[in-house]
Amino acid sequence: MPKYRYKQRLKKIIASGKKISSLTRHLILEGYSYEEAVRGLEPFVSCWERSVRYIEQSSADDIGCSEEYDHDLWARSALHEVLKYASEEELSRYEHRIARADLAFRGATTESDSARDHIKKPDKEQHWWLFRFIKHRMK
Fold it and tell me: Nearest to residue 73, comparing CAs of 118, 137, 136?
């Protein structure tokens, strides 16, 4: 039932004359309000950056394979999903920040052959962040 309501909300927004991007459209259909949706990639990129900062400050002993680490990985999974709907213009505005956060994440983690279970049948190349675990740090 909620999906129907989201579609109806989208129709009303379009009928009111507001222009919407494909990302805004996607987010509204996922249940975000118009006000949230028009913020575009910013909240997703910021969330990933915060998660990476937390991971960098943590160690495997602190959060390891915990739900906290899963939550941080969800931030990257959500970003991955919305990037599919972003315009070239929006992608170019955020590509440097995303690349910097991804690089920092890679620096704080180590690659593994096993994946976190966030996505059905994750592909190691496409969903690379799910195949990484926090490094053990010397104290």
Answer: 118
Considering the domain architecture, whether residues 50 and 92 belong to the same structural domain is answered as yes
Whether residues 111 and 55 share a domain: the answer is yes
Instruction: Please give the sequence-ordered ranges of beta strands (E in DSSP) within 28-94, or none if there are none.
Output: none
Q: Report the predicted TM-score, pTM, of the whole model to 2 decimal places.
A: 0.87
Q: Is 48 a domain residue?
A: yes
At 113-138, the pLDDT tens digits run 888 766 678 888 899 999 998 886 55
Domain count, the chain: 2
The Cα 63–Cα 74 span in angstroms is 15
Distances from the Cα of 59 to the Cαs of 27, 62, 84, 121, in angstroms?
Answer: 34, 5, 31, 27
Domain of 83?
42-134
18: left (phi over 0), alpha (psi -120 to 50) or beta: beta
Query: Do residues 109 and 134 touch, judged by C-beta distance below 8 A?
Result: yes
Number of H-type helices and E-type strands within the chain? 6, 2
